[in-house]
Design a protein that fits this description.
Blueprint: E1 5-9, E2 18-26, E3 37-38, E4 43-46, E5 49-50, E6 75-84, H1 90-93, E7 94-95, E8 110-113, H2 117-128, E9 133-137, E10 150-151, H3 153-160, H4 165-171, E11 173-175, E12 177-182, E13 186-192, E14 205-207, H5 210-221, E15 227-231, E16 235-240, E17 245-249, E18 254-257, E19 260-262, H6 269-273, E20 278-292, E21 306-310, E22 316-321, E23 329-336, H7 342-345, H8 348-358, E24 369-380, E25 384-385, E26 388-390, E27 396-397, H9 404-424, H10 431-459, H11 463-478, H12 480-490, H13 493-501
Parallel strand pairs: 8-9, 8-19, 9-15, 12-21, 19-26
Antiparallel strand pairs: 1-2, 2-6, 3-7, 4-5, 4-6, 10-14, 11-14, 12-13, 16-17, 17-18, 20-23, 20-24, 21-22, 22-23, 24-27, 25-26
GO molecular function: 3-(3-hydroxyphenyl)propionate hydroxylase activity; FAD binding
Keywords: Oxidoreductase
Protein name: FAD-binding protein
């Protein structure tokens, strides 16, 4: 039978279940029925009974009762109840017969390994495009670790699409300014993110602990059709079976999916299962992060909430985060000698000595947290191997100067989620190679290069290099056009623009 559901209008609440009114504009007045094809994963009930062939999860026709009487009408409106909807795409719900192929007779969910920020953003993007997702999380609950806390403007723009950005702003600190300072020379340069208002809805940096994002996303996703999460599900291995993937848990449980996204961190079991190398190097020094409720603004005039201190002996940075304290917490990060033991570095005495170097004459800072990191610059050899994909720290890691690791992972997840949704709905798999080219390309060209440069600028020991850095920053901050250009770079807007240019 020829198709006549050429155009659909009046479909409300496409992304949710419930009663909707559908207007079908008939393609030919000679048609005897308003006839359309049910998209994969949909089931439709028309006026209280199943439409012909529209069984759950099957193909079929949507024929309003009494279709014969509509033969001379150019459009028909009938009421239906969407009982199950995986694809928020009108063409997929009522596509003309023969216009598309059902690429998965037995559709499987995408498996996302890891319920951190990157994993849950990937899940949110897939659910947004009507793709079912099963998240496998090793922990028994969402992590409460502070870890990353910087969110750049374009990342907030992305998170706003899921309804998460506004809630994060409510729970975080908006940082409108960023400073570079010298311990002995005061302020080198102050940059105002407000100059980016022409290119972003969020012209600032947000300081908000990453665990808040995971809780917000989980709250948004938990009741969405197609979303599921399994806690206590440690993935030991994954395998690409050609037509699908299998994740094997530590207890031997096997879970099938259409594809798997490894968002399981630097020690990724997904990456290791795929046999992918993690190329790069490890910095000899470890980074110590200390947090205190002491407000450094009381002793350092005009201190910005994001301040980087260049110093040839010991660089450091200061960031203000909520931290569960009435006035927030200040996080300070310092490099440490490779010759010292972990016990020495994490001792209260060592923490007091580090804080004392921030402002001479004080060492009485209360310390809330002490964390020691080994820091790497590494990138996986590829972000895609068949149906196995990588994002976030599983794909790349870098030093934290500039806050680009977490943000880059979110950018991976959004890029990959949109492309994988196209594949799940029937597009060719090679679109996933574009994900690898775009995101791996900018990871190497921008994220790795910029974070290494950031560290080199702060730790420069040669007077000429120190002076050159001070002059560049002071000149950029004093010229609105140059400040705009610099902030496009450090806010990662340039990296996203570059990724979009790669084909």
């Amino acid at each position: 039978m020829a198709a006549c559901a050429d155009v659909l209008e009046g479909l409300a609440a496409i992304g949710s279940l419930g009663r909707v009114a559908v207007e079908i504009r008939v393609g030919s007045v000679e048609e005897k029925q308003a006839h359309g094809r049910i998209g994969r994963g949909c089931a439709m009930r028309v006026k209280g009974r199943w439409a012909h062939g529209a069984r759950r999860g099957s193909k079929g026709s949507a024929c309003p009762p009494g279709g014969q009487k509509y033969r001379h009408q150019t459009s028909v409106t009938f009421h239906c109840e969407i009982s199950r909807l995986r694809q928020p795409d009108i063409q997929a719900i009522f596509a003309p017969q023969g216009c598309c192929e059902d690429s998965m007779a037995d559709p499987k969910p995408v498996l996302v390994v890891g319920a951190g920020p990157v994993g849950l953003v990937a899940a949110a993007e897939l659910i947004r495009h009507g793709v079912p997702v099963t998240v496998l999380e090793e922990g028994t609950e969402l992590s409460g670790e502070m870890r990353g806390s910087t969110f750049h403007a374009p990342t907030l723009d992305m998170l706003a699409e899921y309804g998460a950005a506004e809630r994060m702003v409510e729970q975080g600190f908006v940082a409108p300014l960023m400073q570079y300072r010298r311990r002995d020379h005061g302020v080198i340069a102050t940059f105002d993110f407000g100059v980016l208002a022409d290119v972003t809805r969020h012209p600032f940096r947000l300081q908000c602990e990453q665990f808040k994002l995971t809780r917000i996303l989980h709250d948004i996703l938990k009741d969405k059709p197609g979303f599921s999460i399994r806690f206590g599900a440690k993935v030991a291995a994954v395998a690409d079976e050609g037509s699908h993937v299998v994740a094997t848990l530590a207890d031997g449980t096997r879970i099938e999916g259409s594809h798997v996204i490894g968002c399981d961190g630097a020690h990724s079991a997904v990456r290791k299962s795929a046999g992918l190398s993690f190329e790069g190097f490890t910095w000899p020094e470890r980074f110590l992060v200390l947090s205190t409720p002491f407000d450094f603004r009381s002793i350092i005039p005009d201190l910005a909430d994001v301040s980087y201190y260049a110093d040839p002996e010991e660089w450091f940075f200061l960031l203000r985060v909520p931290g569960g304290e009435p006035g927030g917490l200040w996080r300070a990060m310092f490099p440490t000698s490779a010759e010292l033991s972990d016990e020495e570095i994490l001792s209260p005495e060592f923490a007091r000595a580090r804080f004392a170097r921030i402002k001479a004459g004080r060492d009485d800072y209360p310390t809330r947290h002490r964390t020691l990191y080994r820091v790497h610059q590494r990138v996986a050899e590829t972000f895609r191997k068949g149906r196995i994909l990588l994002a976030g720290d599983a794909a790349h890691i870098n030093n934290p100067l500039g806050g680009m690791g977490l943000n880059g992972g979110v950018h991976d997840a959004v890029n990959l989620g949109a492309k994988l949704a196209r594949v799940w709905h029937g597009d060719a798999e090679d679109v996933l190679d574009l994900y690898d080219r775009q995101r791996r390309g900018v990871t190497v060209e921008h994220v790795q290069r910029q974070t290494i440069t950031n560290k080199q600028n702060l730790e420069a020991k040669e007077p000429e290099a120190q002076a050159a850095f001070r002059d560049r920053m002071a000149e950029a901050a004093s010229d609105p056009a140059k400040a705009h250009a610099y902030l496009l770079q450090v806010s990662m807007i340039n990296s996203l623009r570059r990724a979009a240019e790669i084909d």
